[in-house]
Specification:
390 residues; Rossmann fold; six-stranded mixed beta sheet; six-stranded parallel beta sheet; 14 strands; 41% helix; binds NADP nicotinamide-adenine-dinucleotide phosphate
């Protein structure tokens, strides 16, 4: 029995423990040493409780096969385990005794559920990266893309409790409307005034906003730049700009400039940044090609300009004001390589695309729901395949 091809079928539900790179002998050895299944899960974050139980279930239904395997493995690994001074046959005897005493829970067909509410929602690609992440970690979770009409949002949110769901993402047009149906908001979501991720804690529904945090993560990880002390310029003052500007200010950005064609969204955002964050903030009325100040560190397109199918559109920026070394970011996830980013690169700027933010916000939600660190590279690759890049 090859460890790498170790498959476990519990009443037709395939659980591939080998995928987690944790061998069965590790799980069983830890159990024999006195660790409970819950403690084993804490030790190896890529394992789920179901997988630990499934390992024991498999053992109980294939004892002779597994015992033969363990005899061989323990013999092969005897040298390595010498410090434990454990006799291999004693190990297997103890194993058999303890597993036979153990009551294994009934097999489960139930998956943990999360998803997204939107209207329209059919083209939302988040399912692709979240399902890829569940698969990579061997988690029996499902991400559902659910069309919810605005007038039925309250019923849908109450349904999270009824369906025992772990949480939900919100997209257009529900990010603000959902707030009235929640029990609590994170301080950041309250500041931003919008929620894109709900986490259920018992019967309580808690609203978070991971959009801006996903952007900060992308600036840190993808561009290797710490926002602390930086001067940041945002083009746009909509929902995305609001989330990003608040999180960059909370991450220590020294100065934030909001450039918007209308002041009725730009001015309130500047007022919010000045009153609720330590950053300095100013509003610029966007009427002609914007000249990026020489002292700016980061320039962000937070408008919808350049989004598919208008892929040739670029925000009005004086291109010769983009200096080499400036970090230029775009929120547009589709296409990731926008005309704006291409023009900035041609000027010698460093760039970060909208996929980084999309993956970042999804990775933070993944961790909030499952408790596991998200496999970010797997998630990005899944989205790159959707958008035909990479
Ligand atoms: N990558 C990600 O994870 C992620 C996450 C969230 C959003 N997004 C993307 O971010 C973009 C903005 O989303 P949002 O929710 O912030 O939208 P929104 O609330 O509708 O805001 C749109 C912003 O773009 C400005 N704008 C639109 N067309 C313009 C034009 N022709 N000239 C100048 N300004 C223009 C608007 O200015 P006015 O205020 O003057 O109307 C507003 O500031 C969308 O393309 C969305 O796909 C990406």
């Amino acid at each position: 029995m090859e460890l790498e091809s170790y498959f476990n079928f519990v009443n037709g539900h395939a659980i591939r423990i080998a995928h987690t790179r944790i061998g069965i002998e590790t799980v069983i050895r830890d159990y024999l040493e006195g660790a409970s299944p819950e403690e084993i899960v804490l030790r190896y974050p890529t394992l789920s409780l179901e997988q630990v139980y499934a390992t024991f279930t498999y053992y109980l239904s294939h004892q002779s096969e597994v015992n033969a395997y363990l005899e061989r493995v323990t013999a092969e690994q005897e040298a390595a385990w010498e410090e434990q001074q454990r006799n291999p046959s004693e190990f297997v005897r103890l194993l058999r005794e303890r597993l036979n005493q153990m009551s294994v829970p009934a097999p489960s067909y139930k998956a943990d559920l999360v998803g997204v509410f939107g209207y329209p929602v059919a083209e939302n690609p988040t399912i692709v990266m979240q399902e890829a992440a569940f698969q990579a970690l061997g988690l029996n979770w499902r991400y559902l893309t659910i069309e919810v009409r605005p007038e039925q949002l309250g019923d849908a949110v109450r349904g999270l409790r009824a369906f025992n769901m772990a949480g939900i993402n919100l997209t257009i047009p529900h990010k603000i409307a959902v707030i009235q149906h929640l029990d609590e908001l994170s301080p950041e979501a309250a500041l931003i005034g919008a929620v894109n991720t709900v986490v259920r804690a018992g019967d309580r529904l808690i609203g978070h906003n991971t959009d801006g945090k996903g952007f900060v993560r992308s600036v840190r990880e993808d561009a290797g730049m710490d926002p602390a002390g930086k001067r940041v310029v945002f083009l746009g003052a909509g929902g995305a700009a609001r989330a990003m500007a608040v999180e960059m200010a909370l991450a220590g950005a020294a100065h934030v400039t909001i450039v918007n064609r209308t002041s009725d969204r730009g001015q309130p955002l500047v007022g919010l940044l000045r009153s609720k964050t330590p950053a300095q903030a100013e509003f610029v009325h966007w009427q002609e090609a914007y000249a990026v100040p020489i002292e700016a560190d980061i320039l962000v397109n937070a408008t919808s300009i350049g989004l598919y199918p208008n892929v040739d559109d670029v925000p009005a920026v004086a291109i010769d004001s983009i200096r080499p070394g400036l970090l230029v970011c775009d929120v547009i996830p589709n296409p990731p390589q926008t005309a704006f980013l291409r023009a900035a690169e041609a000027r010698g700027a460093r760039t970060v695309d909208g996929l980084g933010m999309l993956v970042g916000q999804g990775a933070i939600a993944f961790k909030m729901w499952t408790g596991y660190d998200a496999p970010i590279a797997v998630m990005r690759q899944a989205l790159e395949e959707v958008f035909g890049v990479g």
